[in-house]
Amino acid sequence: MDAQQQATTSVSPDEMREKVVDQIRTVFDPEIPVNIFELGLIYNVDVTAGMDVLVEMTLTSPNCPAAQSMPAEVEQKVRSIDGIGEVVVEVVWDPPWTQEHMSEAARLELGIM
Questions:
Q1: 25 backbone dihedrals φ, ψ, rounded to 5°
Q2: Structure confidence by residue, pLDDT tens digits, 3-56
Q3: Does domain 3-103 fall into CATH 3.40.50.150?
Q4: Are 43 and 102 in contact (CB under 8 A)?
Q5: Cis link prior to 65 (omega < 30° from 0)?
Q6: DSSP code of 88?
Q7: For residue 61, what pLDDT band results from cuts at 50, 70 and 90?
Q8: Residues contacting residue 55 through CB under 8 Å, at least 6 positions apart
Q9: What does the domain layout of the chain look like in residue ranges?
Q10: Is the pLDDT of residue 113 over 80?
Q11: Best CA proximity match to 102, nearest among 47, 30, 35, 26
């Protein structure tokens, strides 16, 4: 058993999901000073028993200037986690993003109540 396989056996999918979310919280929309998880741009994070990851995310608009760079940054940061298998980042448009997807902390940070 190699080091990556050992790492995956010692961490549950739920624990790995927490690590994935922690990494996603380090990604920021270049136009908004709040991480994309708190902005509500991450719709779903699935981690399989084999530590493969599917991230479903959206953008604030289809014309977002970070449409190419932000999903690639999410993928790169998730891939950097020890023990991760395959990583797929899928950009979805349904449901469309609205400010209601933002966490309370993000709304406070941006002065939106």
A1: -65, -10
A2: 444 444 589 999 999 999 999 999 998 888 899 999 999 999 999 999 999 999
A3: no
A4: no
A5: no
A6: E
A7: confident
A8: 20, 24, 42, 44, 45, 74, 75, 78, 87, 88, 89, 90
A9: 3-103
A10: no
A11: 35
